């Protein structure tokens, strides 16, 4: 078995874990980052993409709102290339408590949220599809973030500073040496090979799965209550500004324009299993009803896909005094030396994507304290790879790039404008034969036809390029189709149903994929 | 951005209906197989690409990042063939308008899109104007200075205006009134077509009223000058609307692209669906062949046709197909004894109004029309019938064969 020695082992490659790896690497620490599957494949990659202004928490949770205010500004600086400055509205619809708006405005003032009331007429000029019956509208600095791109940037930055980033490596055992955690044994989920990682500090950044990792370390009572939420991506941008309902946070009250789609979310259902991806018809129905309140005609618009994300809601079974002192109301950093008398082990969970950098900062501060080597955090000022120019992302970028090479470049994924060159480069660089991983890298197959036209092309290119056997290429294709299907069947109505029939004729009727040898 | 009288709309606030239709696209590519332009040039990446695909990347307040959509000729075939109801051509027209708003409009496009101005200038000096349009050095100069291709088909000014004739002409008072929208082509270039339309209608018992009228704004719209197009079409609607007395009033036109503008395109592409005058005019507008065939279906069309022993090729222009009325001219021409009509199946002559006149697009337009020209040559027909004047000029330019509106044959067969 190969053994790696490092300062910090991070278990969990979501935004938080990748953020910890980036932060620690910037501070000059040796880092190994592992995830049981691909990076950002769990909760991080399954949210609506909103960078909060803080407005959502202004009334209910002012400290969380204040964190968002600060982190929103920081992210725009350090991750500009991944962030689109859409701005956001909080709107009072006829279904909302009219009295909330004033409380909201006061709370924004108190928490430092840059909030300006505008007339509904002005809001409708900017967002013509918005419900014309909104009575009050507040403009806030919401934005959207491409979380996959962000996590790749974090991982790339960490790698450039010497970190080992190991996707598809699951922690199968956490090493204990008496009262010290000394690393973990990880298994390559693709080959079964195991690696021993010896670490001075192990960070459990497994989010909704953090309880499972803590148990491997022999630590009881790290109870994560996974909260399951569904999100539906609509085929195009129904709005170009984030639309929030101006009311106490509840289900289906946010519509986020992100990349080529708009995402409505979300629900909050307790589940015992963080791998629970159930989508109930009743939830889809309720979500579409909520969409209708924000944008009349929502139900006639085309839904592309539905998915589930699982929030890691932390509930400590031990008493409150065991929490580290710098914990905020929104996330939980557990120093197990203090909490359980087990050194070299930290758990970071809870929180929200907007504050991932802050969570990472707190975590690495605690790690440095354990190592007895105080090192200053620089993530609030160091731009991520790709964001050095500080130019924010614009939706038209792919179209603009394609226009510049109209005649030279073949389009593989027409909906998301992925060129053959980009696909081949991604395959070579990521050395993966998994089309779903490539999807997250390039947005391949994420548009209206959901892979109907690009997947057979991509499978062929994969086969030709990688020297991948026909059977493996077939498997890649079938797995992708299966994965896509999961997100489509609960929203099979209207235009997407027609698309699925056409896709089905292509794959079943023309290509007979059911009988591929794979 | 100016706000147009009555519309209350700005270009960047066009209603979401057209954009929303992109939801119906299943990527089947039927539009791209039918597109006459993308099939002959790599400069236009095709209706699916520029339409429902690229539209997902367009944000109202972000600058336009593309130029290729300007190579769309606006023929509208993509919208016609789409089995899912995506308003492809209309989405493209709006994207083109955005480019023009941001990058400005070439002087050429400001000139050739104003047939009224050209007509008024050219008519009194027709012999000189016509001569200069045929003088090679003048055309080369026009190409260099303005970007109007030296070979592009240029119509001849008739030297007289249809409306002058109409003013002197008295239609017999039958009480069965019809409002005639003749368009600019008839007014300045082919006034005899208008005289024939009036004669045909009168022969069938109509009392023809010819309101004072102007351009429909289509050339402006198809070159992306939406503000000017709105002003122009609304002025026309205001001129025609007072003549719409009741729901039985009929406005009839022989310029098929201009009647389509009134019927549908101005309301959809320019976002003028709610203008009351335009709505009134739009709902009462008929294409001349559509009207005559409707009369025939009701047994009201006179069929005292004399034989015309000729063979002709018939081409239904894209804009005529945009009416979604089939090809009524074929049924009408079939009523004429002795006339043998060969239906051309190629879809487009390429010119698309003013597209084929532009220096950078002339060759594309000629290639786009090549299938049609080949069919016409192979048909053995010495002359061509076609409902749109710009298409006729293009066809004659490319094939050397004379071309006329289908009603010319009806007119002859009636012996009028």
Total strands of chain B: the figure is 8
Rounded to the nearest angstrom, the radius of gyration of chain B is 21 Å
Mean pLDDT of chain A, to the nearest integer, reads 93
Please report the number of helical segments of chain A. 15
**Number of helical regions of chain B:** 23
Cα end-to-end separation of chain B: 51 Å
Helix fraction of chain B? 40-55%
The second-level CATH architecture of the domain at 303-414 in chain B is 3-Layer(aba) Sandwich
Largest sheet of chain B: 4 strands, parallel
Instruction: State the secondary-structure class of chain A.
Output: alpha+beta
CATH uppermost class of the domain at 303-414 in chain B: Alpha Beta
Account of the 3D structure:
Chain A is an alpha+beta fold and 518 residues long. Chain A has helices spanning 15-26, 62-78, 100-111, 120-126, 147-160, 210-216, 281-294, 336-340, 356-371, 397-404, 420-430, 435-442, 455-466, 470-488, 494-510, and strands spanning 2-11, 31-34, 50-51, 83-84, 88-92, 116-118, 136-140, 143-145, 164-166, 169-177, 180-188, 194-204, 222-234, 242-245, 254-258, 261-265, 269-270, 303-316, 331-335, 345-350, 411-413, 418-419. Chain A has 3 domains: 2-43 and 148-224 and 313-371, FAD/NAD(P)-binding domain, CATH 3.50.50; 84-143 and 226-311, D-Amino Acid Oxidase, Chain A, domain 2; 397-515, no CATH class. In chain A, helix 1 packs parallel to helix 5, helix 11 (420-430) crosses helix 13 (455-466) and helix 13 (455-466) runs antiparallel to helix 14. The longest helix of chain A has 19 residues, at 470-488. The two termini of chain A are 31 Å apart. Among the domains of chain B are: 11-103, Fumarate Reductase Iron-sulfur Protein, Chain B, domain 2; 303-414, Rossmann fold (3-Layer(aba) Sandwich), CATH 3.40.50. Chain B has helices at 16-20, 30-34, 47-55, 77-81, 88-103, 107-112, 115-122, 126-134, 136-146, 162-168, 183-189, 191-203, 218-222, 226-240, 256-269, 276-284, 288-297, 318-321, 328-333, 362-368, 370-379, 389-399, 407-414, and strands spanning 177-181, 207-209, 251-253, 285-287, 311-315, 340-343, 383-386, 403-404. Chain B starts with 15 loop residues before the first helix and ends with a helix.
């Amino acid at each position: 078995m190969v053994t790696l020695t490092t300062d910090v082992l991070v278990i969990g490659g979501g935004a938080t874990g990748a953020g910890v790896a980036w932060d620690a690497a910037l501070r000059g620490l040796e880092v190994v980052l592992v995830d049981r599957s691909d990076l950002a494949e769990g909760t991080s990659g399954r949210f609506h993409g909103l960078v909060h202004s803080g407005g959502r928490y202004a009334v209910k949770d002012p400290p969380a709102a204040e964190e968002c205010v600060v982190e929103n500004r920081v992210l725009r600086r350090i991750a500009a290339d991944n962030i689109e400055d859409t701005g956001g509205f909080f709107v009072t619809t006829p279904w909302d408590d009219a009295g909330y708006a004033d409380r909201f405005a006061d709370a924004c003032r108190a928490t430092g949220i840059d909030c300006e009331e505008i007339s509904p007429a002005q809001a409708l000029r900017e967002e013509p599809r918005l419900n014309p019956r909104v009575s009050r509208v507040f403009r806030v600095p919401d934005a959207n973030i491409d979380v996959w791109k962000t996590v790749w940037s974090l991982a790339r930055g960490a790698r450039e500073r010497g970190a080992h980033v190991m996707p598809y490596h699951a922690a199968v055992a956490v090493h204990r040496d008496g009262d010290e955690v000394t690393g973990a044994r990880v298994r390559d989920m693709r080959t079964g090979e195991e690696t021993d990682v010896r670490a001075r500090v192990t960070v459990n950044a497994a989010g909704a799965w953090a309880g499972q990792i803590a148990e491997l370390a022999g630590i009881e009572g790290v109870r994560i209550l996974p909260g399951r939420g569904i999100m539906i991506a609509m085929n195009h941008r129904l709005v170009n500004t984030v639309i929030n309902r101006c009311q106490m946070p509840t289900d289906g009250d946010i519509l986020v324009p992100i990349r080529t789609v708009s995402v409505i979310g979300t629900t909050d259902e307790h589940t015992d299993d963080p791998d629970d991806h159930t989508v109930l018809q009743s939830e889809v129905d309720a979500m579409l009803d909520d969409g209708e309140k924000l944008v009349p005609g929502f139900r006639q618009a085309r839904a592309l896909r539905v998915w589930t994300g699982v929030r890691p809601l932390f509930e400590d079974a031990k008493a409150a005094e065991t929490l580290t002192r710098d914990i905020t109301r929104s996330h939980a950093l557990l120093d197990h030396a203090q909490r359980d008398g087990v050194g070299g082990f930290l758990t970071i969970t809870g929180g929200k994507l907007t504050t991932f950098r802050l969570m990472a900062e707190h975590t690495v501060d605690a790690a440095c304290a354990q190592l007895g080597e105080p090192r200053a955090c620089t993530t609030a000022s160091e731009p991520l790879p790709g964001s050095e120019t500080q130019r924010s992302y614009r939706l038209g970028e792919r179209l603009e790039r394609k226009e510049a090479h109209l005649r030279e470049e073949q389009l593989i994924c027409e909906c998301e404008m992925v060129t053959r060159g980009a696909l081949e480069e991604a395959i070579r660089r990521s050395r993966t034969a998994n089309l779903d991983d490539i999807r997250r890298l390039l947005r391949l197959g994420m548009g209206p036809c959901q892979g109907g036209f690009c997947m057979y092309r991509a499978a062929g290119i994969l086969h030709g390029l990688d020297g991948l056997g026909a059977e493996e290429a077939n498997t890649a294709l079938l797995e992708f189709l299966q994965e896509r299907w999961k997100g489509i069947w609960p929203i099979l109505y209207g235009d997407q149903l027609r698309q699925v029939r056409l896709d089905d004729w292509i794959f079943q009727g023309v290509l007979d994929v059911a009988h591929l040898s794979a | 951005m100016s706000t147009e009288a009555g519309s209350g709309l700005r270009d960047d606030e066009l209603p979401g209906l057209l954009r929303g239709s992109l939801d119906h696209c299943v990527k089947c590519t039927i539009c791209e197989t039918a597109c006459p332009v993308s099939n002959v040039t790599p400069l236009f990446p095709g209706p699916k690409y520029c339409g429902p695909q690229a539209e997902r990347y367009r944000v109202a307040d972000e600058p336009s990042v593309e130029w290729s959509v300007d190579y769309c000729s606006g023929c509208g075939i993509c919208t016609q063939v789409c089995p899912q109801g995506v308003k492809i051509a209309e989405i493209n027209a709006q994207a083109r308008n955005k480019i023009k708003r941001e990058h400005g409009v070439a002087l050429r496009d400001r000139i050739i899109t104003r047939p009224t101005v050209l007509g008024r200038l050219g008519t009194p000096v027709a012999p000189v104007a016509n001569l200069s349009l045929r003088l090679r050095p003048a055309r080369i100069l026009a190409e260099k200075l303005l970007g109007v291709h030296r070979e592009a088909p240029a119509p001849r000014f008739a030297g007289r205006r249809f409306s002058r004739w109409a003013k002197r002409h008295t239609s017999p008072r039958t009480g069965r009134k019809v409002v005639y929208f003749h368009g600019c082509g008839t007014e300045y270039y082919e006034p005899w077509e208008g005289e024939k339309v009036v004669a045909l209608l009168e022969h069938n018992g109509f009392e023809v009223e010819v309101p004072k009228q102007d351009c429909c704004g289509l050339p402006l719209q198809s070159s992306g000058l939406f503000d000017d197009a709105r002003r122009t079409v609304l002025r026309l609607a205001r001129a025609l609307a007072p003549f719409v007395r009741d729901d039985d009033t009929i406005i009839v036109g022989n310029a098929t692209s201009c009647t389509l503008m009134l019927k549908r395109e101005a309301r959809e592409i320019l976002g003028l669906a709610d203008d009351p005058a335009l709505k009134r005019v739009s709902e009462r507008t008929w294409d001349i062949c559509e009207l005559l065939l409707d009369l025939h279906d009701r047994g009201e069309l006179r069929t005292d046709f004399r034989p015309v022993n000729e063979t002709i090729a018939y081409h239904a222009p894209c804009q005529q197909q945009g009416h979604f009325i089939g090809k009524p001219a074929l049924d009408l021409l079939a009523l004429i004894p002795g006339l043998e009509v060969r239906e051309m199946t190629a879809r487009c002559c390429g010119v698309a109004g003013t597209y084929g006149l532009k220096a950078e697009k002339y060759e594309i337009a000629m290639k786009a029309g090549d299938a049609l020209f080949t069919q016409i040559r192979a048909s053995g027909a010495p002359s061509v019938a076609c409902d749109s004047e710009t298409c006729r000029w293009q066809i004659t330019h490319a094939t050397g064969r004379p071309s006329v509106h289908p009603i010319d044959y009806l007119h002859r067969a009636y012996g009028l």
